[in-house]
Amino acid sequence: MARGKYAKAISDRSGMEFPYHEMMTEWNGSFVHRSEYESKHPQLELGTHAADQEGLMNARPDRVENDVATILKPNPFETIAASSGIINVSEFAHGRSTGDTVRFRGTLSTSATFNNPKNFDGITGSNVAKSAGYSITVGKRDSSGTITQTDNFYHFTVDTNTATSGGVSGGGENCSAGPATLTA
Questions:
Q1: How far is CA 112 from the centre of its chain?
Q2: What is the pTM of this model?
Q3: What confidence score (pLDDT) does residue 65 get?
Q4: Are 122 and 161 in contact (CB under 8 A)?
Q5: In degrees rounded to 5, what are phi and psi of residue 126?
């Protein structure tokens, strides 16, 4: 190996002789004079680039489910006490909230309209099936005002009738509960 101030080296690029201490090694391994030195071009070292976002093939927008009526168990309505208009409604895992408006309907008739629920304990089915529906409170209420069983019961106060004796279930078979805007 050459040493000292008189040492010479041959450039790999030009083939010319230069002082050894003025020589440099390029990124590609070439041994060149500093006047010939070229740094690596930035485009030779591209950084990673995330792929462009692509839409899914055959994508469909999320759909909005239509409101539907829920079929209730037989005789789902229960009065709580005599002279009271409060009615408990049994609807398994209803998922409703206090303040929701619910309309009650009887069976579907052959003319594609809903019948009224059957009368029970002095409460008329037409009053229970009020077209505007009723604002509900979640939970089963007893005659002392205690509210329990919030998952499967809610209650409302009927407008014009009151119970004759209380503690009576009724309404008949295939009653339904749903939004006031639902039509047959």
A1: 33
A2: 0.63
A3: 78
A4: yes
A5: -65, -30
What is the average per-residue pLDDT within 76-103? 91
CB atoms within 10 A of CB 134: 22
Q: List the end-to-end C-alpha distance of the chain, in Å, as a whole number.
A: 100
Q: Are 105 and 71 in contact (CB under 8 A)?
A: no
Cα distances (angstroms) measured from residue 99 to each of 16, 134, 137, 155, 157: 93, 9, 6, 11, 12
SS3 per residue for 108-164: ECCCCCECCCCCECCECHHHHCCCCCEECEECEECCCCCEECCCCEEEEECCCCCCC
State yes or no: pLDDT of 63 exceeds 80: yes
**Other Cβ atoms closer than 10 A to 168:** 17
Nearest to 171 by CA among 92, 106, 101, 79: 106
Query: Residue 64 is encoded by which pair of tokens?
Result: 């909005």
Residues across the chain: 184
Structure tokens at 172: 């008949």
